[in-house]
Design brief:
The chain is built from six helices and 14 strands. The chain has about 230 residues and is of the alpha/beta class. α2 links the parallel β1 and β2. It binds ribulose-5-phosphate.
């Protein structure tokens, strides 16, 4: 029952968010199960309302959701600035900072989200936290060559670092960029997300990390029977 309510909540958030998309828009498509619902609702709108929408996918998952859908796949080389991006999150705090990367797509997501004039986030109610790090680890994408070194540095920073392992494949998961993911838990909620985001990215061999500060503009939080809309002030 809990999971069923969560799925309804995701759908409610996704359905509401795609109403923002206008004819001719060039958008970024994030990754994850809530974004999957958003793409589904957008495809319905494109067909029913005869819209033209262009999209940059942030992952192989997003790419395959778009192929043959009626939404035109484009690149950041053609459109380095996007009208908006729609993405999900693993945690979102009261000041709209986020942890992302549950689907290991954080690097391209951060690029696509940063390219958007407005970043729209779709989450179910379980993703809201007072402070980041309450539940989710911080995912860090690393070059395979640097894995051991980066794990040592993250441990020295007080983190408990674990290489993310694949399911139904032996060994680590491989990202869309050919890298590994290290999940780090710092034991307590994160005091200063911006500082930690910057500090992790300073370690040589780190490609990107899943702390997204000061990026989200509008957040649709889905519940069983309603949607809360949070805005950056
Ligand atoms: C993938 C992500 C996803 O947006 C995040 O994991 C949320 O996914 P879901 O909507 O399935 O809960 O950051 O890298």
């Amino acid at each position: 029952m809990g999971n069923e309510i969560k799925e309804i909540a995701k759908k409610n958030a996704a359905r509401e968010a795609v109403k923002l998309i206008r004819d001719g828009a060039v958008i970024g498509i994030g990754s994850g199960s809530t974004v999957e619902y958003a793409v589904k609702f957008l495809i319905e709108r494109v067909k029913n309302e005869d819209l033209e929408v262009y999209a940059v996918p942030s992952s192989t998952q997003a790419y395959f959701l778009l192929v043959g859908s009626g939404i035109r796949i484009v690149t950041l080389d053609e459109y380095p600035e996007l009208d908006l991006a729609i993405d999900g999150a693993d945690e979102i705090s009261d000041d709209l900072d986020m942890i992302k990367g549950g689907g290991a797509a954080l690097t391209r997501e951060k690029i696509v989200d940063a390219a958007a004039k407005k970043l729209i986030i779709v989450v179910d109610f379980t993703k809201r936290v007072k402070r980041l790090g309450e539940r989710a680890p911080v995912p860090v994408e690393v070059l395979p060559f640097a894995c051991g070194f980066v794990m040592k540095k993250l441990t020295e920073m007080g983190g408990k670092a674990a290489l993310r392992l694949a399911q139904r494949k032996v060994g680590p998961i491989i990202t869309d960029n050919g890298n590994f993911i290290i999940d780090v838990r710092f034991g307590t909620p994160i005091d200063d997300p911006k500082e930690l985001e910057t500090k992790i990215n300073m370690i040589p061999g780190v490609v990107e990390n899943g702390i997204f500060t000061n990026m989200a503009d509008i957040v649709y939080v889905g519940y069983k029977d309603h949607v809360d809309i949070l805005r950056k002030d």
